[in-house]
Fold:
Amino acid sequence: MGYARYEIFRRGQTIEAGYDVPTTCEQPGCTERIDRGLAHLCGETPGGDDYGCGGYFCGRHLYMAPEGQRGERCILDRDNGTDPTVHSPDAMTVTFN
Structure:
């Protein structure tokens, strides 16, 4: 058995996954075509685990896992639910002239 097509249980439903299953990046507003293979997976386990949501994202919306962990993460799972692209009051701002 290969990883081209298989079924997983995610968020209360069964979905088809694998590198031969075309889909779209799950980041809201992104329309990039990807597949449901391990290369696009958030976390280490299809369907989700303690480290990732189990969603599938394009390269622009996946980030390296924190040091000491494997796999890649979507932006919300990378920083435990906080979006690092949103400005916070204590963020340093640099302006170039």
Residues 29 and 61 are 11 Å apart (CA to CA). The beta strands are 6-10, 13-24, 33-36, 63-64, 72-73.
